[in-house]
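step: validate -> pass
step: tokenize input -> pass
step: predict -> running
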Amino acid sequence: MLKGFKDFLLRGNVVDLAVAVVIGTAFVAIVTAFTNGIINPILAVFGGTDSLGLGFRLVSDKPATFIQVGPIITAAINFVIIAAVLYFILVLPAIAARKRFVAKDDSELTDSEVLRQIRDLLAQGQSSAGGRHES
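step: predict -> pass
step: emit ->
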């Protein structure tokens, strides 16, 4: 049971996933600081004069009904920045390395080609088996 667990942990995909999660988590902090320090003040310019920021109230005299649009825009910007950086920094180089260093598989065989190969192997096996029995 422990050997299977060890094999699971040492598989390439699991290690790659763990590294990606750690790097992604660290990068989220950077992007969040960027959006809080730069994007949010820019969005606040478009907000009203109240301290609630960019958004609107459903009921004009109740502050509790304020719908904040700024945090939604900030989260979307965070997502786009993180996805773009991870794609260009991690995914594209990994794809390029895989193409360069991993041996290419033969193209997928069609069903007919596989059946022909099986037929040829069976024919070779019968001719060599028949020769052994006659001796």
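step: describe -> The chain has a mean pLDDT of 77.
step: cleanup -> pass
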